[in-house]
Each structure stands twice: as structure tokens, then as C-alpha cells.
Design brief:
The protein is α+β, with helices and mostly antiparallel strands. Helices cover 21% and strands 47% of the residues.
């Protein structure tokens, strides 16, 4: 399953600060429908993510009925991204 969407990057200032992009509701519902087949625990879903020309492996994190895509520092640096930037994200989920 390949999912593509636009959303802004946000910074979560929790106990372990990190940058994320939120998967929209419709695509989150599609992911939730296959989550039991692809999760490796706690509802996280392994994916290959892509922003611009940068690809990386990560895991989607369930949050409030949607999923969060963690955006690593190396990705933000390679694509010159900052908090608030609108990004096109492509996710490849093996189901």
C-alpha cells in the first residue's frame, strides 16, 4: 500500500522532543484497517517513508485515531525542512 499526502511538520515538546507529520484522517483509517496485519506491537506500523529525494525506514505511531510520521534530523537537514513547512510525504506499507 502506498499513501501520499501533504501536511506541515510540527515539533512535539514532550519528554523526548521530536518532529512529526500527521497522516490525514482518511489515510489513517486505511492504515488502521490493515494495522493488525502489519504492526509489530503497540500499534506502530513499519514503513518506508519519502520526502523529496530522501527515503528512510521508520514506524508510524498511533495517536488520537491518526498516525504520526517521525521526521529524523538527517531528513530535515537533507531536505532543508523546518517546523511548519508543508511537506509531501509518501509512505510505502508492506501488507
Amino acid at each position: 500500500m502506498i499513501i501520499q499526502f501533504d501536511d506541515p511538520i510540527f515539533f512535539w515538546r514532550g519528554p523526548a522532543p521530536w518532529f512529526f507529520v500527521t497522516v490525514p484522517v482518511e489515510q489513517s483509517n486505511d492504515l488502521k484497517a490493515i494495522s493488525s496485519r502489519v504492526t509489530y506491537g503497540w500499534g506502530v506500523i513499519p514503513v518506508q517513508a519519502r520526502i523529496g529525494s530522501t527515503e528512510w525506514n521508520t514506524s508510524l505511531i498511533p495517536k488520537d485515531g491518526r498516525y504520526l510520521v517521525p521526521i529524523k534530523a538527517s531528513v530535515r537537514k537533507a531536505e532543508q525542512l523546518q517546523e511548519g513547512d508543508l511537506v509531501m510525504v509518501q509512505l510505502d506499507v508492506e501488507d
